Amino acid sequence: MTGTHSRVAIVTGAGRGIGAAVARRLAADGFAVGLLDLDEDGVRKGAEAIVADGGRAIGVKLDVSDAGEVDAAVSKVADELGPPTVLINNAGITRDNLIFKMTEQDWDSVLGVHLRGSFLMTRAVQKYQTEQKWGRIVNLSSTSALGNRGQVNYSAAKAGMQGFTKTLAIELGKFGVTANAIAPGFIATDMTAATAERVGMSFEDFKKAAAEQIPVRRVGEPADIANLASFLVSEGAGFISGQVVYVAGGPKD
Ligand code: NAP
């Protein structure tokens, strides 16, 4: 990246798991980072750790599906760190159930966090990106976008993230803004630990069984996603836009 671009990144869902790893990695790459999450304690600790390592970071509590909170949080990052030009839409939840047992609340909350949340965040951040004539958007999709039993809500949301990404790439490209999606397979985080619990398996056994189905014979770690996010927001990735990259230890589409 040249010195003329704002090096301020926002990562949602940065309180733990993949978002926390991406925030740490972007800070190591030289970005000032706004860590945003429902979990105030998680983002405060994450920001403190980055500052202790000599970086710049703030933690901000928000619900990404609340328009007022989103606008306030993005303004706070802009005021305290500078105009945000990198956005990682990572906040996510699962509310798994077979369709005959799925409630409207399960459906609305999952689409609300992933799709409405990413829309609200991107609408707020693109203002700074287009002003700066440079930006990078990375959206978290999932291999579940291709279909996964018990996840009609989540797979619809994650497939939606792919269309959202491609349209952002088309609309914002002329402003120097790229948009890409990362579609992880099995990544060891609290989210997959909760799935193990739901199906009545220990997390160790669940990971072992998953690894047997993955060509590289291991499950993913948050750093596997952070490595790609780091590249996609770099200057060198400026001609890659509207793509979905599966990070799943094997082919998925
Ligand atoms: P995680 O460990 O459950 O972390 C998700 C974070 O998002 C949590 O800190 C959570 O806060 C936060 N969050 C949830 N709802 C929010 C909201 N409305 N506003 C702000 N923050 C909110 O999940 P992860 O495994 O790191 O997953 C990160 C992303 O990758 C998600 O989009 C997920 O769908 C995607 N993904 C994960 C996997 C995987 O195998 N782990 C695979 C494919 C895709 P609280 O702690 O307060 O709930």
Automatic annotation (TrEMBL):
PROSITE patterns the record matches: ADH_SHORT
Annotated Ketoreductase domain residues: 7-185
Source species, domain of life: Bacteria
Gene3D superfamilies: NAD(P)-binding Rossmann-like Domain
Family designation: Belongs to the short-chain dehydrogenases/reductases (SDR) family.
The protein's name: 3-oxoacyl-ACP reductase FabG
Source organism: Amycolatopsis minnesotensis
